[in-house]
Design a protein that fits this description.
This protein is an alpha+beta fold. Helices cover 42% and strands 16% of the residues. The strands form four sheets. The chain has a five-stranded antiparallel beta sheet, sandwiched between helices.
Length: 307
């Protein structure tokens, strides 16, 4: 679905899912690749507002994966997310969060919240449920049927199940040239050979933690009530430095205050040197989706990670 003309059918669909009567509907931002709407509903408790987004066609399990990710983030008690009201193959319905102004106080709280989130252990590396599809944007993320879970397993897992599959898609789609692709492959070889003592390119061993997985600034909803919400996650058992690297890749309001607050709770020595490594998967996704303008940046990140 796309465009304002589709608002009424979406509102009717949401009303049917929530058991309420549909009132006003208007298109809003925040859907990223989806069409998004602010919808007023009315039931026995009076009017309420919800957020709904649609995608036609949506990849298999697309909204179910997002809903599961939001619920997993909420279950940690560490970060704030919109409550999931309904998740169907064609639509996701969330509580409406009134937008507010990005300010230093919210950024600092978000930094502390992320530090708490990253202290939440994940079952294993990769998708929370290997049987359920997971997506980074619209790009599927593979996960083995029996994912590894040890702190020493991350470098090889990241190379084999994140970087190399994304690289193959970028190469096939013309999003990265051969010299840059070879440098990404060289980095993957180094990761697979990384020693477990923390002296390799991946740094100290890290157990799998619950991470947002796609934490660019557009997935931070600054709220009128003073606590930022996280949206559109690609939740997985991942490396905490990936969330911070994504925030730095495209910038974020009051990022310096956010990172300082994070560091106060959860210091991460040597993170700056590993930043290109953790940004590379996101650059590869952009090379897959948006083409060769990102291919050179992928190669540069791989070379920087290799040192």
């Amino acid at each position: 679905m796309s465009g304002p003309a589709d608002g009424a059918p979406v509102a009717g669909r949401v009303a049917a899912l929530t058991g309420a009567a549909a009132g006003g509907v208007r298109p809003v931002g925040g859907g990223s690749i989806c069409d998004a709407y602010r919808i007023t509903l009315s039931d026995g408790d009076g009017p309420r507002t919800v957020f709904a987004k649609t995608l036609d066609p949506a990849p298999e399990g697309f909204f179910a994966a997002e809903a599961a990710g939001l619920e997993l983030l909420a279950s940690t008690g560490a970060v704030a997310v919109p409550r999931v009201l309904a998740a169907e193959p064609d639509v996701l319905v969330l509580e409406w969060v009134e937008p507010g102004r990005a300010d230093a106080a919210q950024a600092e709280r978000l930094g502390r919240d992320l530090a708490a989130l990253h202290a939440s252990p994940a079952r294993a590396w990769g998708n929370p449920d290997p049987g359920r599809p997971a997506y980074l944007g619209s790009v599927p993320l593979p996960s083995p049927a029996e994912p590894p879970s040890g702190p020493e397993d991350w470098p090889a897992f990241h190379a084999e199940h994140r970087l190399l599959p994304l690289l193959r898609q970028a190469v096939d789609g013309g999003g990265i040239g051969a010299p840059d692709a070879r440098d990404v492959e060289r980095l993957c070889e180094e990761l697979c050979a990384d020693p477990a003592d923390g002296t390799g390119v991946s740094g100290p061993p890290q157990p799998p933690a619950v991470v947002h997985g796609d934490l660019w600034s557009g997935n931070v909803l600054w709220a009128a009530d003073g606590r930022a919400r996280l949206i559109d996650p690609a939740v997985q058992g991942g490396h905490p430095e990936a969330d911070l690297a994504m925030l730095e890749l495209f910038g974020c309001p009051h990022l310096d205050r956010l990172l300082a607050a994070y560091q106060e709770v959860r210091p991460v020595p040597g993170r700056r040197e590993r930043l290109p490594l953790h940004q590379l998967q996101y650059l590869l996704v952009h090379a897959v989706l948006f083409g060769s303008g990102y291919g050179g940046r992928c190669g540069a990140a791989a070379r920087a990670a290799l040192g």
